[in-house]
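User: Show me sequence and structure for the first protein, then do the same for the second.

Assistant: Starting with the first protein.
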Amino acid sequence: MKQHPTSTPRHPADVHWSRRHWLQAVAAAGLGALALPHSRRAWAADAVEPVNRLDKPVRIIVAYGAGGASDSIARYVGDSIAQRSGKSVIVENKPGADGNIAAEAVVRAPGDSYNLLVSGSSTHAANATIYKKLGYNPTADFTPLANMASTPYAMIVNPKRITQTGVADFIAWAKKEGQPLSFASANVGGRIAGERFKQLTKINAVNVPYKSSAQAMTDLIGGQFDFYFCDMLTALPQIKAGHVRALALSGAERVPSLPDVPTVAELGYPGFDVSSWIAIWSAKASTPAPVSAALSQWIGEALASAAGQDFLVKKGLVPTPVTPDYLTMLEERDTRLWGKIIIDAGMQQP
């Protein structure tokens, strides 16, 4: 496992584009030209020509429960695939084991359908370090189709329990208290964000794991722990209702849905950037390359449309480039960067 650098290089080829740069590029190049370089051109190196229609139905297995961001976006692109392919699309939720159950199900699925996985930075980055042995190979068993969105975490507190309104005051209070604080996590990315926050700020805090974001949110509002790096889909309604307070964001950039909330990096911790990503892969064993090329193209068209962009933003998600190469870059980067955080935090399974 390679070591995690103290900061992430920022250059044009880096995977983190600010929203400003993204929109400027869209305006300059045209939405389709930028957002869809993964169509015929992206597969040209392999001389793969996408098919026009499918001869089998499509099965999408989601690594998380119904109602979350991954489930929502899977069903959105599933509808788009069905419209373009002329075949039915079945979406199934198989949560558990940090996405490993879903990933294994896709790899082992029979060939009577084209089998896709909607997951992200757990199955294709973090789990390589967390688990000693996986029942799938993230690279050899899957064909990357698209990174569909990025999702930073909101660092939230219960304002009735925590009176501090800024991260600096929160850290000073946490260090003064002396007693260990507690922070919730409902997924691998949120846990890594909390652990990285601990590592950089030197506060004393212990993790309280939850099986769902909704239950963690209920207990935060109930005063059961001190802070929570929460997914945006769950956090936004509670922030806007005033039930919780957002102190900071875990990503590299602010998000349009919370324009006044700074990033942790802005607040004196450069290099802090923990955002999960929601991506989609096909199983190599059951999905030929021309079919994967077509699916990648259709997914990109759906997300690049005005309706697709609006859908993502309303869910608190950040649009990203949707090329297979971009997804591969994310996999390689976060396998390396998150690996060190995981080891330092003692998150590896025995």
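Switching to the second protein now.
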Amino acid sequence: MGTEAISIINSSALTGVFDNPNNCLNQEKNEFWYEEEIDDDLKWSFALNSVLQKATSEYQDIVLLDTKKFGKVLVLDGKMQSAEADEFIYHECLIHPALLCHANPKTMFIMGGGEGSAAREAFKHKSIEKVVMCDIDKEVVDFCHKHLTINQEAFNNSKLELMINDAKAELEGRKEKFDIIVGDLADPVEGGPCYQLYTKSFYENILKPRLTENGIFITQAGPAGIYTHKEVFSSIYNTIKQVFKYVVPFTAHVPSYADTWGWVMASDHPILLDAKDLDVKIQDRIDGELLYLNGAAMLSSTSLNKTISQSLKQETHVYTEESARFLHGHGLIMNRL
């Protein structure tokens, strides 16, 4: 999800914000801020109530912030992953399009997803019998299970098979096939391991063989705004086009990301999108309420503006381990004086 470097700013030049969560309380004269560096000359700040929890795993730093505007915000290695107020936009777009476009989805494999929100959305579908969620970081999974109360029911669902493993290794080692495979992965950042799960060789040799005949793959694909879509979105789309016959890119604005976000859905079976048909499927197949998606919203999300449409048509870059593209920023947590 997010990949931007961040810092914590406090207006009174106090130190030790992350050493004492109480230090981040917005007092009468002291305001504390979470700041993302979107680009070298562009930053995005959130006013904080407090730092709720923090932990460190083998792989990354984990922080849960309480922001004034977006509620609880999950930050991994200084990179915002999701915000309580609007994470439903990201996760509904990640999960439901593929499930609704499949004739009868019963099994799903989630690469990443340790937050639990992707599994939560999948379990709204009556037909789902099994969800394998494979995240490499047990500390993140345990942290989210404990502190993100909205997802506790999903973590405790008997249909969930939780695997702590590298998703690539897990798929390589499995013989079963899945109706849906989901990429709920961190963005490709230089020096990080996730970019390998966006490569043509991975899609072609490891992921696609683990799909059923009519299976559908869907992945988050990074920022997809007018100024940001060429960073990785167009390249991920073009790479997937080299592997699957039918590829559908779509986007939605996520307020806490300060940008439009992109997803790519792909299959070797035709993907049919009809607003009325999708509304019928939502009514018949789903228990619970979708807050963002309906048939019209799903269909309109695939209508890209002229600039982005032309970029996707003209994109020639293919993701490989040797020629990967990376998003700006590495991610830091610090106190700015």
